[in-house]
Design a protein that fits this description.
The chain is α+β, with helices and mostly antiparallel strands. The chain folds into two domains: 91 residues, no CATH class; 195 residues, P-loop containing nucleotide triphosphate hydrolases (Rossmann fold, 3-Layer(aba) Sandwich), CATH 3.40.50. It is built from seven helices and 17 strands. It has a six-stranded mixed β-sheet, covered by helices on one side. A hairpin with a 2-residue loop joins β7 and β8. α3 crosses α7. The longest helix is centred in the C-terminal third of the chain and has 22 residues. The radius of gyration is 19 Å and the shape is globular. The relative contact order is 0.14.
């Protein structure tokens, strides 16, 4: 176990252990504000260790920072308001290396009454907004960025990271009475973003380990009438490989895990539009899935 220091803080976010070590007090405060409910008194193993250090100020360039992950230099941001997004990305990039027992899909993951929902999609598809909308409507949150599927049990596991909202989602969050103070915005490669703790959306937000019962591929369109269209399991098994971070780095062959995962799930394409109507469609699908499980039990 590495030596503890006054600048270290340890967190257990679902199955992922994170140690943040930085003398930058603003970053320690911002991270603690988001993850206070997940803080632990000591280092847990395996862990993703993120170190953020200041470079000396020099007259010929702006102060830069160094972001190291498990001892490897990952990023060199120049602005203090970029640090939190870079720490979040650093953790995301390291998960597949540290936790190869899980298949890692770029997807939002939610749970309702034991029904696990995966929403695989590329960046910009509205996964985070949809996850926040479902959370506000009684679903429980696993992650807005990763679906972590155990390669042996095929169970979906929680990684309740802060929800990252891009500028286009700010009005939606405010319509849910989620405060987004201007001073809490962060600069990132995606423009200005806000990070929202799931506990700001719901009083009991974090979901439990559950089987994957719904695999839904969302595509958002302005003015689109929300619709769920059933697709074959064969199609659903092939599609996620494009958004899989460790297809060949998982402890079991990634395509085999995908095929086994969808064999127990109902699979759909989702035309996502109005948030209320879209969330209602997914809630009805979860209720039907739960009913079918009960009937066959």
């Amino acid at each position: 176990m590495p030596r503890e220091s006054a600048t270290e803080r340890h967190y257990q976010t679902g199955v992922v252990s994170i140690t943040l070590d930085t003398p930058v007090r603003r970053l320690r405060r911002e991270y603690a504000d988001l993850y206070a409910r997940f803080e632990t008194p000591s280092h847990l193993s395996p862990a993703i260790r993120v170190e953020v250090m200041r470079e000396p100020r020099r007259w010929f360039h702006r102060r830069r920072f160094r972001v190291l992950v498990n001892g490897r230099l990952q990023f060199e941001p120049s602005r203090a308001d970029e640090l939190l997004p870079y720490v979040e990305w650093a953790v995301n990039w390291e998960i597949a290396r540290t936790y190869p027992q899980y298949l890692h899909l770029h997807a939002a993951a939610m749970e309702r009454d034991g029904v696990g929902l995966i929403l695989p999609a590329e960046s910009g598809s509205g996964k985070s907004t949809l996850a926040m909308g479902l959370l506000k409507r009684g679903w429980r949150y696993l992650c807005d960025e990763f679906a972590l599927v155990h390669s042996q049990s095929l169970l979906l596991h929680p990684f309740p990271r802060a929800i990252c909202l891009k500028r286009g989602s700010f009005p939606v969050a405010e319509s849910m009475n989620i405060a987004l103070p201007r001073g809490d915005r962060h600069h990132s490669a995606k423009g200005f973003v806000h990070f929202v703790s799931p506990f700001e959306v719901s009083s009991r937000p974090v979901g439990s380990v559950c089987p994957v019962r719904l695999v839904v591929f969302p595509k958002y369109g302005t003015g689109v009438t929300p619709d769920l269209a059933s697709i074959s399991r064969a199609e659903a098994a092939l599609e996620p490989h494009r958004v899989c971070f460790n297809l060949f780095g998982c402890k079991r062959p990634g395509l085999e895990v995908l095929a086994r995962m969808v064999a127990g799930a109902e699979c759909y394409r989702l035309a996502s539009g109005d948030l209320n109507e879209t969330c209602a469609l997914l809630t009805d699908a979860a209720r039907r899935s739960r009913g079918r499980q009960a009937a066959t039990a």
